[in-house]
Every structure is written in structure tokens, then in C-alpha cells.
Amino acid sequence: INSGSSGINAEYGHGGKHCVLEDANIYTVDQLQKAGLHPIVILVKCKSSHEIRSVRNCTSEQAVKTISKSNKLEQEYLPKFTAIVNGSKCDDIFRAILSAVNNHKESLWLPIS
Predict the structure, then answer these.
(1) Which residue pairs, CB below 8 angstroms and at least 24 apart, start in 77-85?
(2) Which of 13, 19, 90 is nearest to 56 (CA)?
(3) CA 74/CA 81 separation, integer angstroms
(4) What's the CA angle centered on 45, arms 104 and 83, to 5 degrees?
(5) Whole-prediction pTM
(6) DSSP bridge partners of 2
(7) pLDDT of residue 71
């Protein structure tokens, strides 16, 4: 999936595969929904800047900004998220994401417009 500013082009197949968009913004989520795709939207949160720095290569200042941004996203767009996962290690975060995807692949709830 290309989520560039010119729009969204999606090419996907069958077979239980998922496309992962890292750092996708809310506009991208809205565009996917308008295109008839129903993404599993997961917010990954870390509780401290130390946790963020253990999974990403960043400065303390960048880690604090990331926490602030994720808190703001959660407050403003909570209904858009399928799941919010926490973890202090990459393996923990991966398992939590995998669990969230597996929990939502069996059924799909669509809003009535």
C-alpha cells in the first residue's frame, strides 16, 4: 500500500497476509476506510522514554516527544484504533501486535453509514 499524499493505491491478495504501514497517519486510515478497506489500526505505546529508547534508536528528547504524540493520538482518535498495545521489548510488542491482529481477523465489524 502506498500512502503518499497523492492518494492510496492498494494491491492486496488472499491468503491471510497483512500489509503493515508504520507511522501511518489518521488521514491514511480515513482514506483506506473510504476505499472500502478496513484496516486493523494499532497504536503502540511505551510507558517511558527508557522503554522507547530500548526499542528505537533515538534521543531522550525524541522519546519524550513520541510519548506526547502517542498520548495525543490516543485522546483525539481513540475510536479509530482497533487496539492499543504496550511493551518494553521488541518481542513483547511483536507478540501484542500479533495477538491484536489474530483477535480481529475472524470477524469484521463495519459501521452502518
Answers:
(1) 77/26, 80/26, 80/29, 80/41, 81/41, 81/42, 81/43, 82/39, 82/40, 82/41, 82/42, 83/40, 83/41, 83/42, 83/43, 84/42, 84/43, 84/45, 85/42, 85/43, 85/44, 85/45
(2) 90
(3) 8
(4) 15
(5) 0.71
(6) 9
(7) 92
Grid cell locating 83: 487496539
Tell the residue number behind the cell numbers 521489548, with chain if given. 89
Q: What is the pLDDT of residue 61?
A: 93
pLDDT of residue 106: 57
- Cα-to-chain-centroid distance, residue 69: 13
pLDDT beneath 70: ranges in the chain:
1-18, 105-113
Q: Say how far apart CA 66 and CA 60 lie, in whole Å.
A: 10
Distance CA 19, CA 10 (A): 10
The whole-number pLDDT of residue 105 equals: 66
As a dihedral over the C-alpha atoms of residue 30, residue 52, residue 86, residue 110, rounded to 10 degrees, the angle is 10
CA angle 57, 76, 86 (to 5 degrees): 40
